[in-house]
Amino acid sequence: MLRLLFNRRVLLIAAGVGVLLAVALWPKTIAVDVGNVTRGPLVVTIDDEGVTRVRDRFVVSAPVSGRVLRIELEPGDQVKKGAVVARLQAETPPLLDTRSRAEAEAAIASARAVVGRAQADEERARATLAQAERELTRARELLKNELTSRQVVDAREAEQRTVQEALNAATFASRAAASDLQRAEARLAPASADLPGRVVTVTAPVDGVVLKRVRESESVVPAGDPLLEIGDPRRLEIVSDLLSTDAVRVKPGARVMIEQWGGDRVLDAKVRRIEPAGFTKISALGVEEQRVNVVMDFTDPAEAWTALGDAYRVEVRVVNWETAAALKVPTSALFRKGEAWAVYLFGDDGRARQALIEIGHQTGQDAEVTSGLSEGARVILHPGDTLTDGTRVSERPAS
């Protein structure tokens, strides 16, 4: 009787130990996030920052040297073509000293000699051309009477064209020499009696808005010094300096989405031009990058972006590829299996099943599936290293 009770107790202990070992060694179920393979629009874009700018800018400069009077116009003020935008009080040009006058007189003499030589070359070229035209006419008459060959006529035509080009060059040289003479004589030309102290008005070249006032206060400026910048803010364009490796994938006419510009909607634009020359730019991390300016135009009506002005920051998304019905999988479900792409499917039996797939275009959120998955399949998101084929899994409740 005692032996029987002992054996029964041993059996119970052994059974308890077995149950504990089974529980300890039983595979654990891993909670995972699950996503779906869906069909819908997929847009691949090249994203970067951009800056707006007025397409046609006009710099109003001082026509003469003098003291510019205070400019009353402020940036943003409307101006009409021909309206007075600035006034200058012309100053007396400096007198030449003896040495400068002698140099100016010598320059005039030299320029006159160059003009004479250029005119002589032009007359000689005219005479040579007249002779070449006579020779060509004579050769053509002989060819009609079959007294010469076509080769001789071709040679006379080539000679006539060569002499004509020489005359054109001589004419241009004569004009350039005459201009040089005028510049040399201008140094010794007496100043106009009414120029010193006279107020010269500067007018707006076009209708538009004052974009920038270069000269804030009254000051002395040389001729050609910029005073104002005028433009039409309704003719805005967007410039984005893309990486050269991205710019080569952009085509003129490509659709562009304008975001983060301060409005409550996405603006539409299109690429007008990719500039042919790049430039080097230092990134915020100190890395040299080759950038290319890509110019874009708004396609939305002006009323949609009327709040934008010159040199405003925007975010541009240039569409590189898009389709309305792509089979797509979340990119967070993808991982590499050797050289291939793979995902873990959430099986109906509550186990993870590995599947090799092929993908095409992809964005930061979704990837185009070209083979290996079907619409409606459920995939495991963010698969960890502990997940293997056949692992028991459970769907984590959405937070």
Quick structural summary:
This protein is an alpha+beta fold and 399 residues long.
Could you report the average pLDDT, rounded to the nearest whole number? 86
If you consult CATH, what is the topology of the largest domain?
Elongation Factor Tu (Ef-tu), domain 3
What is the number of strand segments?
22
Considering the protein shown, what is the CATH homologous superfamily of the largest domain? Efflux pump adaptor protein, beta barrel domain
How far is it from the N-terminal to the C-terminal residue, by CA? 61 Å
Describe the main β-sheet briefly: 6 strands, antiparallel, barrel
The CATH architecture of the largest domain can be given as Beta Barrel
Q: How would you sum up the global shape? A: elongated
Helix content: 25-40%
| Uncertain stretches of 5 or more adjacent residues | none
Task: List its traits.
399 residues, alpha+beta, conserved putative lor/sdh protein from methanococcus maripaludis s2 fold, Elongation Factor Tu (Ef-tu), domain 3, OB fold (Dihydrolipoamide Acetyltransferase, E2P), six-stranded antiparallel barrel, four-stranded antiparallel β-sheet, 4 helices
Structure characterization notes:
This protein is α+β, with helices and mostly antiparallel strands. It folds into 4 domains: 30-40 and 324-395, conserved putative lor/sdh protein from methanococcus maripaludis s2 fold; 46-54 and 233-323, Beta Barrel (Elongation Factor Tu (Ef-tu), domain 3); 58-90 and 209-231, Beta Barrel (OB fold (Dihydrolipoamide Acetyltransferase, E2P)), CATH 2.40.50; 98-186. Helix content is 28%, strand content 37%. The chain has helices at residues 2-25, 98-144, 150-186, 244-247, and strands at 30-36, 38-54, 57-61, 66-68, 78-79, 84-90, 199-203, 208-213, 219-221, 226-231, 236-243, 255-259, 267-274, 279-282, 288-298, 313-330, 335-337, 340-346, 352-362, 366-371, 378-381, 393-395. A 6-stranded antiparallel β-barrel has the order 2-11-15-13-12-16. A 4-stranded antiparallel sheet has the order 3-10-8-5, with no helix packed on it. Strands 7-6-4-9 form a 4-stranded antiparallel sheet, with no helix packed on it. The two termini are 61 Å apart. The model has no long low-confidence stretch (mean pLDDT 86).
